Amino acid sequence: MNAMIGRKIGMTQVFGESNVMVPVTVLEVGPCVVTQIKTKDKDGYSAVQLGFGSKKPGKVNKPTAGHLAKSKAQPVQVMQEFRVDDAAGYRLGQVITADIFAAGDKIKIAGTTKGKGTAGVMKRHKFHGGPASHGQTDRNRHAGAVGSGSSPGRVYPGTKMAGHMGDVKFSVRNLKVVKVDQSKNIILVKGAVPGAPDGIVSIHKI
Prior knowledge:
Strand content: 35-45%
Low-confidence stretches: none
Number of domains: 1
Shape: extended
CATH architecture: Beta Barrel
Oligomer: single chain
């Protein structure tokens, strides 16, 4: 297996070679349970669906409960599908832990960034703002003109304006695994990972 679901715990620092301080993100990776297996003969492609986390049985609807019953898995918080070359080596209910990772591995992590709510153009698009003099009145942080007059007489799609910021899926590549604690299913990754603490992330080996 070359991918898993995990949870971002937070950030800390460790001391590496020559006592150099390394900023790391702590991730709880697994244990993940195999909840569905897809094959080329039946589904047209090979993939393994993993479940991570726990949820109260009363908060699981009947279709999801029936789906999990096939693998005899407990109610999970999230399920995600990962492509594999051959799904023949997996079985329903199989538990996958953090031992698939090792120190030095290069990984890609995808998560949901922090939501910032409605933001102006200076915060959202790094606009410089208007001048503070020459007749400006309460226009310092505004976007300025967005149209082109009577021709074309409209605002072009994609124009940078104020609006919703954050809360989007974002991936970071070429992160390095610094340490793996298999007993606690925890890995330390050099650098920052998108999302807030306790956020769900997917980890892919590259």
